[in-house]
Each structure stands twice: as structure tokens, then as C-alpha cells.
Amino acid sequence: MAGRRQQPVDAPAPRIMVGRIGSAHGLQGWLRIQSYTEPYENILDYSPWQLRIAAAWCSVEVIQGRRQGKGLVAKLTGCDDRDAAHDLLGAEIFVHRQQLPKPNALQYYWADLIGAAVVNCAGVRLGRVVGLLSTGANDVLRTQGDRERLIPFLLNDVVREVDLSNRTIRVDWEPDF
Q1: Domain range summary for the chain, segments of one domain joined by +
Q2: CB contact at 8 A, 31 and 85
Q3: C-alpha 100: how far from its chain's center?
Q4: Cα 68 versus chain centre, distance
């Protein structure tokens, strides 16, 4: 596809996954986008996108994007027809870390929490963060240690401290939960 630059899989720039390409939309190369950003329209503001397709990387510019029904559609450079759109289906969308705004105090990107050690107030290691869930009411840390735990991400109530430099999260949580 024209306009895409191939990059090695192990390119050094830190990337954060912000979405996925769903399906083709129409005949002129538009794509349905599954966004992981909050609000979900923000993904359209982060151009260029770094797409991971199988084991290959390419960089594309977002030409246009808009809400379409309950989702988003986007037009990308070099994607001018349905066949070109079909080549991108399932691609994971990443952006370089420096494209994202700096979080305010007591705000965290989920990507920064993944892999952090979780320790309770008594010093008991509960595992590492392997994912987060959005429940609508609050986010939930998914940890894996001796077993999987779901810990509400409620600052000051449950989550007492997030130390990104040491990659640890201290929680008021009993190991039996």
C-alpha cells in the first residue's frame, strides 16, 4: 500500500496501543476503528499511527476521521479503496508515547500500570498488574500472582500509592480477597 513505511518489529521508540482496525467502511478505503482511548474519539487526534500488521510495522497519517453511528471511521494515507482497507483489517494501532498529553497529578495511563508489582499495606506481594478493566463505576486492576485478583482502582480508598519510578502500587487489600 502506498504511503506506508516498513519499520523493523523491534523499533526502539516506545509505543502505546490505542486501538485496532475493525472492518472496511464503504468502497473508498474508510475503516471502522475500535478505540481504546478515553474519550474514544481522541484516537483521531494522534497522527501518525503506527500499525502492527502481523509482525510488520508501518506508519500512516490520519487524513480524516469521524463518529459513525456508535463507533468511529477513519481515512488513512494510501488506503484509497476497499481492497487496500481489507489489507489493514485487524491491525493494532499504536502511537509514540510523546504524542500523548502528559497525565495530570493522580492520573495514569493504563500502559504505565501494566507490569507494576502490587503490594498491600502489610507488605504482602499480591502479584503484578496484567491488565485493567473499565466497569463504568471505576477501573479495576487485574493482577496475577499466586492467583488472579481483581482490585478496584480507587485512589486513596483502595490504591494508596502509585510509584511509577519503582513500578509498584501499594493497596489496602487483603490477600484473601
Answers
A1: 5-99, 110-171
A2: yes
A3: 11
A4: 21
